[in-house]
Amino acid sequence: MIDQRRTMSQVHENGSARRLAIDTIRTLAMDAVQAANSGHPGTPMGLAPVGYTLWNDVLRFDPTAPDWPNRDRFVLSVGHASMLLYAILHLAGVQELDGDGVQTGNPAVSLDDIKAFRQLDSKTPGHPEYRRTTGVETTTGPLGQGCGNSVGMAIAAQALGSRFNRPDFALFDFNTYVFCGDGDMMEGVSGEAASLAGHLALSNLCWIYDSNSISIEGSTEIAFTEDVAKRFAAYGWNVIHVADANDTVAVGEALAGFAATTDRPTFIIVHSVIGYGSPRAGLASAHGEPLGMDNVRSTKRAYGWPEDAQFLVPPEVAAAFTAAVTGRGKSARREWEARLAGYGEIFPELAAEFELLRRNELPVGWNGGIPDFPADAKGMASRDAGGEVLNAIASRVLALMGGAADLSPSTKTNLTFDGAGSFEPDDYAGRNMHFGVREHAMGAIANGMTVTYLRGYTGTFLVFADYMRAPIRLAAIMAVPTIFIFTHDSIGVGEDGPTHQPIEHLATLRAIPGLNTIRPGDANEVVVAWKTALMQTHVPTAMILSRQAIPTLDRTRYAAANGLTRGGYVLGDCEGIPEIVLIGTGSELPMVVAAHEALLVEGVRSRVVSLPSWYLFEQQDAAYRYKVFPRDVRARLAVEQGGAFGWDRYVGSEGATITMSTFGASAPLAELQARYGFTIENICAVARDLIGKTR
């Protein structure tokens, strides 16, 4: 049993209050990783002085109101170093908020939470998770994602400031700080994001790069020898060097250099030794696994720390750290709240708009200008319908902001109404984002915008969803309603050939838990798809739209497009029990409808089901799903110009699909449809054959 009084006395003999706090962070990281027998102790140990200096001396954050809108954002892109953040949140006394933003009366991270590091249902998972732990601004894990998110946060701050700030009334002027490492720098997404941030001159963005020259496989010399400083200087960033991460004075001066820079983002390169103070310092094993009890003891001994103490937090350390962070943050918050009160008196309409953003609510009448599309045999591309609906909504929902990866003329994701403008260094009020050919960063940036009061959306071709997989998946993990628009959705791309014809992409998007993938079948389903996406508060949407024109169905003859809200619905039916159910999505839906009509003329009892969203359909009760797909009807045929994977869920073991099993070809669309069986005649033939086999 350790004598706590003796322990505290021993700690006091070995350094200043600042050193005690830094070593508290380090030893908590060591103890938590060791107790879990899992995790990364090295980076938290090496970065502890930098983390302490940022939070104790600079960061504008009120632990008693951790959702204060104008707080500085801190992003730990090196998510494997999560114990650094958990230790800081604990020492800063951050208060927990529930899902509704109400304080629970509990700490965001207690000492017991730290002891439960990486354990089931703990608030201290292996990588920080948004919504799970108060004080975590975004989910980081895949390296580089936090870097991309931070650019979105910085964009949001500038956009919101342009919208709401008035002389003497700054509602949004916060900074975003990021801890990143060698792995982040190696991942391409960080380069994409940094390039755009430099172009946009985001002076409210500061990346702090832990240059420790260690990766999992060993020294970075084996794979990463570029001059990162020169790269960021070329991006247009202000580059500052700190020779030793332990020099908190130099770290403070670097942060002051960021504060003084008003024309570009700042990149602070901090040189550290991973696992500082450990006998194994500088080894990759200190990065990727526990130190081992013998090394933990000897490391603590090197710090002058009681080597047998576990999870030791000197009370005066926590008290001083909490007081420093809270004192600065609470004062800033109270000043801001006073400004907000005065702002509401002078600018009541803007104040009301701000409150809607704060509550994540849509304005009254937000959907009032959305067009209704009349029946049209020629129809229009669903991307064109999507562009019209987007503009109608965005003109009223001012939080909706985004753009495309250099493809807005093709994806129809540009905002064209008066005053929309472009978000550029000389105009942060513009709402069209020009992401450039940077799909990966685009997704991460949009997520960062969405967690910062905006409704971020992106646009590119469906085949390039592969470049966006990580941010789409993370949007679903975080449960944030980012909208990902994908056009050129099938072999309908035609002459561009198999490199641009998405085949497996629908299946891979549908496989992401918590992502609502919608492939509307005509212009009016596009309307409902957009309405559905905007009304989500915890679900991201992937909207899949066509390049080619597709007929607009006559809704006086067929069911209303509002059926899309249930994911799937009976679009057209027959008298009595159907002999076959035809299922269509997207551009194939009108073709399926035409085949249905032809079969009815032949005397075949056919039902056509529109199934634009598997995600929404699976949320319906069994009674509704069986009403759409009667159990006794075994002849079911799905038609989709994508891969067959997953369709067995709906067609059953005796059903069939007309889908793609190759990567397509370069040819005009009509020739491709004939080659692969996407014709009314073939649908009817397969349907008749299927009925015969299932009788």
Determine and state the CATH class of the largest domain: Alpha Beta
- Poorly predicted segments: 1-14, 279-286
Instruction: Give a count of the beta strands, DSSP E runs of length 2 or more.
Output: 22
Give me the number of helical elements: 26
Using the coordinates shown, work out and report the CATH topology of the largest domain: Rossmann fold
CATH homologous superfamily identity of the largest domain: Thiamin diphosphate (ThDP)-binding fold, Pyr/PP domains
**Span between N and C termini?**
78 Å
Helical content stands at: 40-55%
Q: How many domains, in number, for the residues?
A: 3
Percent strand = 5-15%
The largest sheet has its strands arranged as 12-11-13-14-16-15
Q: What is the residue-averaged pLDDT?
A: 94
Helix/strand-derived class? alpha/beta
Gyration radius, in Å: 28 Å
Shape: elongated
Largest sheet, in brief, is: 6 strands, parallel
CATH architecture of the largest domain: 3-Layer(aba) Sandwich
Q: Would you kindly provide a brief summary of this structure?
A:
This protein is α/β, with parallel strands linked by helices and 695 residues long.
